[in-house]
């Protein structure tokens, strides 16, 4: 397939992606879709976009592989440090204050769009290090990319992926080998990786903290609104939402309240 997708093919594929995931491909990122599709055609030894489309809509396994291939998975440990500063210095203390009113000691967290796991592992390491007794935490980490989830579940990262991890954390929470770093079981056991499409309700409730960073930018306005509403319904009465630093809920009809802390801006759910 030497040429770019024609207009009809492009429309078919981007509608399929949008209807199933909420991810929007515009003319501006058409070349990305075309490039990813060429890779799949080459791997599957299929000689036309139309033939591959027929394969995708009839084969659930290939459909998931296709979505996997068009999902951008850019992440790193401690990405956007001010968010983690706000987590430790503002969010966790306020969550604990609310927990004291009920006697509950478990903090529930969702890393949505977790990619290869660096974000949930960063959260887990920070809380392992800083969360006071008797409080504990569970992290649900989800993504639409099965390949990325497998990396997260394995918890092994080459040296090239370790930039930004404090030296003390490398020693405390990783086991070094010749090829890279393995997350220690005590950290891995706090995280549950699972496939989840944000177009759907997760079924989870009473979450205290949700991270969904640099995901909404791939959605159009209606898909963003639907996703944010599902987050709101999944979260506890007093809880906190982190989105990407380039993302915003301004102009969206949402019940979340904008929150500016000394470290970063985020959103809160605050119900009586």
Summary keywords:
272 residues, alpha/beta, 7-stranded mixed sheet, 3-stranded antiparallel sheet, 10 helices, globular
Give the overall silhouette: globular
Q: Please give the order of strands in the largest beta sheet.
A: 6-2-1-7-8-10-9
- The tally of beta strands, per DSSP, is 10
| Residue runs with pLDDT of under 50 for 5 or more positions | none
Q: Report the β-strand fraction as a percent range.
A: 15-25%
Helix count equals: 10
Provide the residue-averaged pLDDT: 93
Helix content: 40-55%
Structural class: alpha/beta
SSE series? HHHHHEHEHEHEEHEEHEEE
End-to-end Cα distance, whole Å, is 58 Å
What Rg do the Cα atoms give?
20 Å
| Main beta-sheet annotation | 7 strands, mixed
Structure explained in plain terms:
Helix 3 crosses helix 4. The protein contains ten helices and ten strands. The longest helix has 22 residues, at 81-102. It is an alpha/beta fold. The strands form two sheets. Strands 6-2-1-7-8-10-9 form a seven-stranded mixed β-sheet. The protein is 44% helix and 20% strand. It has helices at 7-21, 30-44, 49-58, 60-70, 81-102, 118-130, 146-154, 167-173, 185-188, 221-234; strands at residues 106-112, 136-143, 156-158, 174-176, 180-183, 191-195, 207-212, 235-243, 257-260, 265-270.
